[in-house]
Design brief:
six-stranded parallel beta sheet, Rossmann fold, 4 domains, Substrate Binding Domain Of Dnak, Chain:A, Domain 2
């Protein structure tokens, strides 16, 4: 095995410690493979076409010769069929959007189906927890909340409302024409922009299917037209499937409110049965949470010599149960193999998305049982215990029992790093409204007021994955700290939010340590962390709602693109991230990605995504690897928007006031 430079792989001491252990025990991880297997230089540009059997055709971008400012374009680059580099790269980009959207929307379909069964009383153990949210969401779907006329009108039972809501939502998956419902939630101006460009999604499935059709050999060969359908598809994710998942999960499992938690591998316990839930869907983890508290199972664990059962999360399944129950988190994406390497994980239970098949191989070297639970996501060497919503608690208990049975089989030396950080999470869109908007106004008015007054310079979304091609968590941390220092409040989801948690940024105390004076003052007054953990990847829809609420509260323009805001995924890696980025860009947000950019094979297409698209949607993509530069560009954009809104002067005043205050304090200090 190749020698690894640990500090280049991860800034997390827990990860470094376990990578050392893996090396000593001869266990190969993604970090080893990243060293020996370099990315395909043509694929990385999006310039490889393998959609028919005449290829793969490769159309790499011309390279600069030494001393040349720009490479000379020798001839029109095209595949055997004549598909240009623009078409090929756009198709590859579009397929990423289609796959990302399909992932979120298929998750959403599962949630909606469960929701219907809950409404029908056919999913024992699940319930409608948040009736207030049910009623609010039902209203958005034009579901009647009362029965009878006039004074006779009576509130309908929650189950009846939920059933009608479920039917309306499920119908939207197969809807063939018209407009999906939640685009109506966006600011009016945004809706008009989408209508003008013909990108309002008709249904949730149709946009994915049509996009896949259009990327088939010999169909859509106009790169802008491919990007147009990519937009329609991505909007069906952010303002469709993802938003539906968030809403229905909140209704069934509870809308998150601030709650304490712990993050990092140190949450595992040597003397407990450790069960890690990994993936994206909260349906089974909700029941695992219940089952883990079952006194019978706890005494069963004790009968095997353990002190109890420690449940922990990984990736976005973790975010879901952390936000709602404070279940500790073992780590983000690049921690999955490392959790097994501790030698202390008795069962690693996976559902869908972001699970590496390498888990099977790593698990062979330890005693960990990998248990797949979703019929859509199996692994050949793993044990499969299918989730069944009709007997969800039984399934959960069976899984926990398997973990307990495996506890006596631990064989490798156990090493659990000590690192784990306290966090405060659970900042749903509604909670932020309550905390920053106040219950009287019931809007984001106070947040806007702070932005207008300059205490908060702007709003940033920092989201997305880990990527083994860059140092784990490093870009997340540098970017977030730079933003906070400059009074930019950060909304976060996914692995980025977990990274923030690992290094102490999800606590109210972080405000005085990392923020500029203005932002620190706001966070301290309200008692919130400067990085607001808003949930899992599907909960990026909460950020869309928060942005919309800012527009609606007034004073910051009439559209999302007017806001002093920007978004970033500095360590992205999944196709879902591209779908998310595309719906943010076309919702009006300047969106920056790090690590690598998948359209460099076509300068024309890249130019369109980085510049031209802004004329149409008011948002645009950008790619920058250096997180300091990324922060600078985000802040410059925020300042540009402040200027356009005429609130740049307010900020200058605020800063001057602070400077004056500092000088006064210094002078006062000298006097004493
Ligand atoms: S889990 S999609 S690695 S954020 Fe949502 Fe993390 Fe990215 Fe998976």
């Amino acid at each position: 095995m190749a020698e690894l430079e640990l500090d280049k792989l991860s800034i997390d001491p827990a990860a470094q410690e376990l990578l050392k252990k893996a090396q000593a025990e001869g266990v190969e991880t993604i970090f080893d493979r990243a060293k020996t297997m370099k990315p395909c230089p043509i694929g990385v540009e999006g310039a490889c076409c393998r959609i028919c059997a005449q290829g793969p055709c490769r159309v790499p971008a011309p390279k600069k010769k030494p001393g040349e400012e720009k490479p000379e374009e020798v001839k029109l680059r095209m595949g055997l069929c004549g598909a240009t580099a623009e078409t090929i790269v756009a198709r590859n980009f579009a397929r990423m959007v289609a796959s990302g959207t399909a992932s979120h929307n298929d998750h959403s379909r599962g949630v909606a189906k469960l929701f219907k069964e809950v409404a029908q009383g056919e999913a024992p153990g699940y319930e409608i927890k948040d009736v207030t949210k049910l009623r609010r969401v039902a209203k958005d779907w034009d579901v009647a909340l009362t029965a009878g006329e006039g004074e006779e009108a009576k509130p309908r039972p929650k189950e009846a409302v939920a059933l009608d809501l479920a039917d309306k939502i499920l119908a939207e998956f197969g809807q063939q024409s018209g407009e999906i419902n939640y685009t109506r939630r966006a600011p009016k101006k945004r809706q008009e922009i989408w209508r003008k460009h013909g990108v309002v999604p008709r249904g949730l499935d149709i946009e994915v299917v049509e996009l896949m059709h259009r990327t088939h050999m010999g169909v859509d060969q106009d790169y802008k037209n491919l990007i147009k359908q990519s937009t329609r598809c991505a909007l069906a994710d952010g303002w469709g499937g993802s938003m539906i998942s968030t809403d229905l999960q909140d209704i069934m499992f509870g809308c998150p409110v601030p709650i304490a938690g712990e993050i990092n591998l140190g949450v595992l316990k040597e003397d407990h049965v450790n069960i890690v839930m990994h993936g994206h869907e909260p349906l089974l983890p909700e029941m695992l949470y219940v089952a883990s508290q079952d006194p019978e199972l706890i005494s069963y664990a004790q009968s095997k010599g353990a002190k109890g059962i420690q449940l922990a999360g990984m990736c976005c399944s973790a975010n879901e149960v952390l936000m709602r129950h404070g279940v500790p988190v073992a780590g983000n994406y690049l921690h999955q193999e490392l959790a097994v390497i501790t030698g202390a994980v008795d069962a690693l239970v996976v559902d869908v998305q972001c699970e590496m098949q390498a888990l099977e191989n790593v698990a062979k070297c330890y005693h960990t049982k990998i248990i797949t639970t979703d019929d859509r996501a199996k692994m050949p060497l793993a044990e499969h215990i299918p989730f069944d919503e009709h007997h969800a608690l039984d399934v959960a208990k069976k899984i926990i029992r398997e973990g307990i049975d495996n506890y006596p089989n631990r064989r490798a030396p156990v090493l659990i790093p000590k690192e784990s950080s306290p966090t405060v999470v659970g900042f749903s869109y509604e909670t932020i409204q309550y905390l920053l908007g106040g219950s009287i106004r019931g809007s984001y008015y106070t947040l806007n007021d702070n932005v207008i007054g300059g205490r908060i310079r702007g709003i940033a979304g920092v989201v997305g994955c880990n990527n083994c091609r860059t140092t784990q968590d490093s870009s997340h941390m540098i970017l977030i700290k730079e933003l906070l220092k400059n009074d930019v409040i950060v909304l976060s989801t996914g692995c980025a939010a977990m990274a923030a948690g690992k290094y102490g940024l999800l606590t109210p105390e972080a405000a005085s340590k990392y923020c500029g004076e203005g932002l620190a003052e706001v966070c301290e007054t309200v008692g919130i962390p400067p990085v607001l953990h808003m949930g899992a990847c599907v909960d990026n829809s909460r950020i869309l709602m928060a942005a919309t609420a800012c527009v609606k509260a007034g004073g910051l323009g009439t559209d999302i693109s007017d806001l002093p805001a920007a978004g970033a995924a500095p360590e992205w890696m999944s196709e879902k991230a591209i779908a998310i980025g595309q719906y943010f860009v076309t919702s009006g947000v300047y969106t920056l990605f790090g690590v690598t950019w998948p359209t460099t094979g076509s300068e024309i297409l890249t130019d369109y995504l980085f510049k031209g698209i802004e004329e149409e949607y008011g948002g645009k993509w950008d790619f920058v690897q250096d997180p300091y530069d990324m922060a600078k560009r985000m802040i410059a954009h925020i300042d540009l928007k402040r200027k356009a809104l005429g609130i740049d002067k307010a900020r200058e005043r605020v800063l001057m006031d602070m400077e004056m205050r500092r000088q006064l304090e210094a002078a006062a200090g000298e006097e004493h």
